Amino acid sequence: MPVSRPTHVDIDLAALRHNFRLVRHQAGADRQVLAIVKADAYGHGAREVARALEAEGVDLFGVALLEEAKDLRAAGIQAPILILGGIHPGQEVGFFRPGLIPCIFDLETARRLNAAAQAAGQILDCHLKIDTGMGRVGFYNGELDQVLPELAKLRHLRIDGVMSHLAVADELPHPFTDEQLSRFRRAVARIRAAGHAPRYLHIANSAALFAHDIPECNLVRPGIVLYGALPSAHFAGRLDLRPVMHWRTSIAMLKTLPTGSGVSYGRRFIATRPTLIATLPVGYADGYNRGLTNRGEVLVRGCRAPVAGTVCMDWTMIDVTDVPGVQVGDEVTLLGEADGQWIRAEDWAEKIGTIPYEVFCQVSKRVPRIIKG
User: At 10, is the secondary structure helix, strand, or coil?
Assistant: First the structure.
């Protein structure tokens, strides 16, 4: 590999496989698994993740965009792919490829897709999205009396799946999840009564998979748990997940500052003692969140070292005064495991007021991913 700065992400495929096997076990023999690999597999690298999961026997993949599905096909992925983000005008013909499945959540799009399928002389399988309370996209139950007769006119579309999305499945317990499940069951019954015979029924995300029994559904959609992070704090101590992403860099410079010296923009860190500052070649342009200013921690030589001062675009400073023997070139772990210690995405998320999903997705494309395992 060409020489570059030491900032990189290690992707542990052995951990990914472990997490997938937990999902498969939890799903049981009667349910298939649709692995969510949208947003470049939550920043982990969709091509490599999908190849590993396909080798493990995943049944389907889920992406947000047609472009993401095309990229997986270009990488040699053969499993069916459900495109969750809809069909934008002009994209219709892009779905006429083996195993690409559109998600339908409005009649105008369904009619466009049907016209394109008719012109191509094809019958296109699709999944129907029901809005059971997410308030985002999909058909409400109250619309189905008008929608289903219109869908029946679209002879070149086949409703092969019915799906919905849970809004608060990661909050345990929550009565609204039960309400959403009830709405979903009623919608499925009406769809079947209208003459459709969907092969797949699915509503369970990572949280619902491990917290709710939904016997009528035969497909589950794990996302965040595949990458080793909890759906929420409610699942702490309940799941044997292994983080897949380990973000590392190394110390570029050491500098001893006298008492009273400031560090970085805004002088938000003032040394209260003679302080040894290590400068790291990583910053918010790489996805190391600026909210970690004076709040983040890293691992170096088996010790936890705090972020000192404002995180810059390309640099981050840490206080290594209490790290014995620290040297320029020492490896620093920003996220993941080192020497038996962990900095988890959940830890970051708590400090900066977000969720692990965003922590992963924010890791910039300029940070190389190195595939291991």
Answer: strand
Burial 202-220 (b: 16+ CB within 10 A, else e): bbbbbbbbbbbebeebbbb
Q: Is residue 6 domain-resident?
A: no
| One domain, residues 186 and 310 | no
- In this prediction the pTM is 0.95
Catalytic residue among 38, 129, 200, 284: 38
CATH number of the domain within which 88 lies:
3.20.20.10
Mean pLDDT along residues 221-240: 96
What is the distance between the alpha carbons of residues 227 and 244, in angstroms, rounded to a whole number?
5
Residue 168, domain extent: 31-227
Rounded to whole angstroms, the Cα distance separating 5 from 35 reads 33
Q: Compute the distance between CA of residue 41 and CA of residue 105 in angstroms, rounded to an integer.
A: 24
Catalytic, out of 153, 255, 265, 365 = 265
Residue 91 lies in a domain: yes
pLDDT at 1 over 60: no
Whether residue 2 is predicted with pLDDT greater than 90 in this model: the reply is: no
Q: What angle do CA 84, 32, 359 make, to 5 degrees?
A: 50
How far is residue 264 from each of residues 12, 34, 156, measured CA to CA in Å?
33, 45, 61
Report the domain count for the chain: 2
Instruction: Assess contact for 187 and 144: CB atoms under 8 A.
Output: yes
Q: Does the pLDDT at position 12 exceed 70?
A: yes
Catalytic site includes residue 38:
yes
Distance separating alpha carbons of residues 275 and 355, to the nearest angstrom: 33
Instruction: Indicate if 200 belongs to the active site.
Output: no
Q: Which helix (H) or strand (E) holds 147?
A: helix 144-152
- The average confidence (pLDDT) of the chain is 96
Q: Are residues 140 and 262 in the same domain?
A: no
